[in-house]
Amino acid sequence: MTLYAHIVGWGKFAPAKVLTNDDLSQMVDTSDEWIQARTGIRERRIASEQETTASMSIAAAREALRVADADPAKVDLIIVGTVTPEHLFPSTACLVQDALGARQAAAFDLSAGCSGFVYALGIASHAIEAGAYEMALVIGAETLSRIVDWTDRRTCVLFGDGAGAVVLRASKHPGGVLSSILGADGSGGELLMLPGGGSRFPSTPESVLNGMHHLHMDGRRVYRFATKIMVRATRQALEQANLSLQDLSLLIPHQANQRIIESAARGLKLEDGKVFINLDRYGNTSSASIPMALCEAVESGHVKRDDTLVLVGFGAGLTWAAATVRWSVPLPVATPPRWRVAVRWARYRWAAIRRRALSALWWLIERLFPPKPDRKG
Question: Is the distance from CB of 139 to CB of 105 less than 8 angstroms?
Answer without folding.
Answer: no
